């Protein structure tokens, strides 16, 4: 993220995607901020050699700190009403959850149902 920002990428960019989901051919739409991407929302990529859980949490926390320092809205929600806080809680990454809560993050609409 630092490298992208250093070369002019906008960390507040919001990705809008329209695609067909899997074999069901269901039309899907997604909205993803850089903060959401930092906590694994909006993408379905599986690394060939995944880092350990502790490494993933540390890397995620660093990316979340960069995104929030760049002014990304900590309460932005995807089209299902999920926020970055919801994703961090689902992953049980306590350091990321605590950081987001300290920044004023709240659970999304989907988590409140």
- Please state the overall shape, judged from the principal axes of the Cα atoms: globular
Domain module tally = 1
Counted beta strands: 2
How many H/I helical runs? 6
Beta-strand portion reads: 5-15%
Largest sheet geometry? 2 strands, antiparallel
Low-confidence stretches: none
Write a concise synopsis of the structure shown.
This protein has 113 residues and is α+β, with helices and mostly antiparallel strands.
Description:
The longest helix is centred in the middle third of the chain and has 17 residues, at 53-69. Helix content is 42%, strand content 14%. Helix 3 (53-69) runs parallel beside helix 5 and helix 4 runs antiparallel to helix 5. A two-stranded antiparallel sheet has the order 1-2. The model has no long low-confidence stretch (mean pLDDT 86). It has one domain: Ankyrin repeat-containing domain (Serine Threonine Protein Phosphatase 5, Tetratricopeptide repeat). The protein has helices at residues 2-6, 34-38, 53-69, 84-91, 94-102, 109-112, and strands at residues 14-21, 26-33. With 113 residues, the protein is an alpha+beta fold. The protein is built from six helices and two strands; from the N terminus they run H-E-E-H-H-H-H-H.
Keyphrases for this structure?
alpha+beta; single chain; Serine Threonine Protein Phosphatase 5, Tetratricopeptide repeat; 113 residues; 42% helix; two-stranded antiparallel sheet
Which secondary structure elements does this structure contain, and how are they paired or packed?
Blueprint: H1 2-6, E1 14-21, E2 26-33, H2 34-38, H3 53-69, H4 84-91, H5 94-102, H6 109-112
Antiparallel strand pairs: 1-2
Helix pairs in contact: 3-5, 4-5
């Amino acid at each position: 993220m630092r490298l992208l920002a250093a070369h002019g990428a906008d960390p507040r960019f919001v990705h809008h995607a329209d695609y067909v989901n899997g074999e069901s051919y269901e039309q899907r739409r997604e909205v993803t901020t850089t903060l959401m991407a930092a906590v694994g929302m909006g993408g379905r990529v599986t690394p060939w050699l995944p880092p350990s859980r502790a490494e993933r949490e540390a890397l995620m926390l660093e990316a979340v700190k960069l995104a929030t320092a760049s002014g990304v809205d900590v309460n932005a929600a995807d089209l299902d009403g999920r926020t970055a806080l919801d994703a961090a809680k689902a992953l049980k990454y306590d350091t990321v959850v605590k950081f987001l809560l300290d920044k004023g993050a709240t659970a999304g609409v989907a988590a409140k149902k």
